[in-house]
Specification:
The complex is a heterodimer of chains A (114) and B (112). The mean pLDDT of chain A is 92. Chain A is mainly β and 114 residues long. Helix content of chain A is 0%, strand content 46%. With 112 residues, chain B is mostly beta strands. In chain B, a hairpin with a 3-residue loop joins strand 4 and strand 5. Chain B is 0% helix and 54% strand. Chain B contains no helices and 11 strands. The chains are: A mainly beta (114), B mainly beta (112).
């Protein structure tokens, strides 16, 4: 699985958009970008994933650059409950050979402030 | 639909003992993965089970083992506990080739 680089921490104002960057310059053509988050004392939570097109769901938007070497997770209106560690993971789609293994990096510690 | 459940939630053991942790996946999910989380090493993959077979394994010593039952419930066992095994052990379940993995609340193991 390709390695990812994320800022260690960032602050965000409540009600504003939070833009979380992730670099994955060694990503291969069949690898997807996944985002998970972990709120304190809880298990990680799936947020969103994508291959090359921008994706949006009820939680967030994922913007992947055209060369796929980086991506940005956008939380449109951050709330205090969005305070968490956010993990960007690059991996093969869970096909038979790849299984469901996730390789977590250090993530970005996001603090949403009132 | 009920989420992933893990038992027990907290556990204190002594060095040299063994421990068994249990995970019940979401109904219909047949893949179960285990992770260890420590402040120093972060989240690390232990192993994954599907249809009672281990199909992926992380870089952990043989003291760490697991199994999956026909109802998809899974257990992991750590023998000859060491202080460094103190961690939060997380279980995740998903569909066979699911994009989303659903994590349980974890079992916090303390080895003294």
């Amino acid at each position: 699985d390709a390695k990812t680089t994320q800022p260690t921490s960032m602050d965000c104002a409540e009600g504003r958009a939070a833009n979380l960057p992730c670099n994955h310059s060694t990503i291969s053509g069949n690898e997807y970008v996944y985002w998970y988050r972990q709120i304190h004392s809880q298990g990680p939570q799936y947020i969103i994933h994508g291959l090359k097109n921008n994706e949006t769901n009820e939680m967030a938007s994922l913007i992947i650059t055209e060369d796929r070497k980086s991506s940005t997770l956008i939380l449109p209106h951050a709330t205090l409950r969005d305070t968490a560690v956010y993990y960007c993971i690059v991996r093969l789609r869970p096909i038979k050979a790849a299984g469901n293994k996730l390789t977590f990096g250090g993530g970005t510690r996001v603090l949403v402030k009132p | 639909k009920a989420g992933v459940t893990q038992t027990p939630r907290y556990l204190i053991k002594t060095r040299g003992q063994q421990v068994t942790l249990s995970c019940s996946p979401i109904s219909g999910h047949r893949s179960v993965s285990w992770y260890q989380q420590t402040p120093g090493q972060g989240l690390q993959f232990l192993f994954e089970y599907f249809s009672e077979t281990q199909r992926n394994k992380g870089n952990f010593p043989g003291r760490f083992s697991g199994r999956q039952f026909s109802n998809s419930r899974s257990e992991m066992n750590v023998s000859t506990l060491e202080l460094g095994d103190s961690a939060l052990y997380l279980c995740a379940s998903s569909l066979v080739w699911g994009n989303e993995q659903y994590f349980g609340p974890g079992t916090r193991l303390t080895v003294t």
